[in-house]
Amino acid sequence: MAENSSNSSRRPTIYDLAQIAGSSPSAVSAILNGTWKKRRISAATAERVTRIATEQGYAVNLQASLLRRERSHIIGMIVPKYDNRYFGAIAERFETMARARGLFPVITCTQRDPDLEFEAAREMISYQAEALVVTGATDPDRIADFCAAAGVRVINLDLPGRRAPSVVSDNFGGARDLTRLILSRLSQDFGAPSPLWFIGGRPQDHNTLERLRGFHAAHDEAGLTVPPTQVIMPGYSPDKAATALIGRDFPARFGIFVNSTITMEGVVRWLSETLDMDRVRLGCFDWDPFAALLPQNVGMVEQDVSSMLQQVFDAIAEGRDQPTRINVPCILRPLPARVGQP
Amino acid sequence: MAENSSNSSRRPTIYDLAQIAGSSPSAVSAILNGTWKKRRISAATAERVTRIATEQGYAVNLQASLLRRERSHIIGMIVPKYDNRYFGAIAERFETMARARGLFPVITCTQRDPDLEFEAAREMISYQAEALVVTGATDPDRIADFCAAAGVRVINLDLPGRRAPSVVSDNFGGARDLTRLILSRLSQDFGAPSPLWFIGGRPQDHNTLERLRGFHAAHDEAGLTVPPTQVIMPGYSPDKAATALIGRDFPARFGIFVNSTITMEGVVRWLSETLDMDRVRLGCFDWDPFAALLPQNVGMVEQDVSSMLQQVFDAIAEGRDQPTRINVPCILRPLPARVGQP
DNA sequence: CTGAAAGCGCTTACAG
DNA sequence: CTGAAAGCGCTTACAG
């Protein structure tokens, strides 16, 4: 199949097909884009043109097609990274849901770099994207302003902004539930619970602050107060987390709330090189199937990617553009005990 | 900034800008795409037009621009999934390297579905991609044929094809090195080594067969023969791996070669629910930072994503189109002992 | 130093 | 049932 007519290295156009089929470019266009029924073109012609298109390895030129059409049906997404299950799941699910709605998904990854974020957004507007989903952006409002000027709809996902609708996890509730779980497993395994450590994230970061609020709320319920020295926010990277732990004095038995799987990597590596892992119990905000197998891990919070994206697509379909905030509940995943009580 | 002239909801064009600036569309076009120096347009005009473009929130229409230009500079990639570090790293690195070369990367994920793979390839050709990187495809030759007919360059990555240049890991060498490592750690921890289990992948899969060859080669060196019942290839998914282990009889001490991180998930989950994990040592083909923290894991093979992509971009730049095969060495990552000898 | 004009490959009213 | 024609927003030789 796909025999290119050998006379030219150029891709065939509807004019080429029309000439071969003895028909007109208009007819070929209509046949190939499915509007031929309402034009009442003969089935025989349609069949012949379709066959020739296949033989010639024809693929429509979307640049030309989209330039002429009213709508592009392109929907863009920017994500910071592909290096964890959360953003990976978001990207995959976004593509699937977009295709299911007859849209063309275009995703690009912006390395948590504000300038790259902005350039990527501009590029998607240049591609005539009709809507843009801005995920985990460091400066979502700058992008929202630019999109507003270009008449392109924006939705913030994961991190909220002030200029467009935002869909975010219920970070407070998820963190509170996880903190409760770690505290209860601590008392189960070690006796009387003591205040947990909180590691990861940044004090300027919306999600970190919400999670910290939930962390404190669960401690309050349990009549516990967390010493400020036990809240450590050195960013998300494994190395920064490990460095921040150097020289800390941990008690005989203790528990840690880890704020992101990325941070978890550094925390577990450092601890396992430094002390007896039977002394510690951990819980982590965000889900990773391998992290779930670490023996000291008592539970993880999974963000509900499907529900979040459902909200995103609903907001786009309904044409919402007010800076509303939608909170999507998280899923607490307790893990079986994999390590003996001392 | 980005004040849209309120008279219209349409995006501004170079005609709008020309009118506002009191210049011509040609001049505006040249100024905005950087060719104005060689047209010797006055710096004053250039400055004025640039300012107006910013004020109006102008972004070039790439559909129109690309339709007119000779080249698109678009480079496409299809990947099967975003759900593991290997493909995540490939996607991220591909975007970075493409941008560094002045290309526009477009990636889409095809869920290991041959039809989706083909449709995605066709879509990228419709977007005028100049080259297509086909990663981990189930039917790369079908895509290669179609691309050849359309005059689009293709490179296979990860899984080789017969119709286009392929860049793949040295699966044989990586598997042999990993097998050696597991065997040596077995004898270190448990005394005399016994033949390993091999779990994961499919017998029809090129990479699996190469890894199996390396697995056997390392056993041969050690004077060991693997019983056929110890080679289990139920696909890659965690659940299939777990199911395939049901009812197996494992000796008091044993070692496993796990063929992919995805499989590792199922293997470790099942084993840890079933037996004392001190009895087992594992190694895994492919790298994952959390899997590296599992106490029984003695080492992982990391595929050298940067080198592989360097080869891909070289092949594209040089215009290679013969079905050559490039093997890129893997990186063996031994892991520190995290579990006591019995 | 600058503009008018052609044309990239399509789609779609419009006129038969 | 079908085709000629206009035009989407650009770029780029070409002619001043």
Measured by residues with Cβ under 8 Å of the partner chain's Cβ, the largest interface is: A-B, 67 and 67 residues
Global mean pLDDT of chain A:
92
Number of domains of chain A: 3
- Second-tier CATH architecture of the largest domain in chain A: 3-Layer(aba) Sandwich
Strand content of chain A: 15-25%
Oligomer: homodimer
CATH class of the largest domain in chain A: Alpha Beta
Strand count of chain A: 12
Give me the Rg of chain A, rounded: 27 Å
Considering the protein shown, what is the CATH homologous superfamily of the largest domain in chain A? Answer: Response regulator
Fraction of helical residues of chain A: 40-55%
Encode the helix/strand succession of chain A as letters: HHHHHEHEHEHEEHEHEHEHEEHEE
CATH topology heading of the largest domain in chain A:
Rossmann fold
Cα distance spanning the termini of chain A: 69 Å
Biggest sheet of chain A, in brief?
6 strands, parallel
Task: Indicate the low-confidence ranges of chain A by residue numbers.
Answer: 1-8
Widest sheet: strand ordering of chain A: 2-1-3-4-5-11
What count of helical segments of chain A does DSSP give?
13
Structural class of chain A: alpha/beta
* Shape assignment of chain A: elongated
Short descriptors:
13 helices, 44% helix, 6-stranded parallel beta sheet, 17% strand, 342 residues, disordered N terminus, 6-stranded mixed beta sheet, alpha/beta, Rossmann fold, 434 Repressor (Amino-terminal Domain), DNA-binding, homodimer
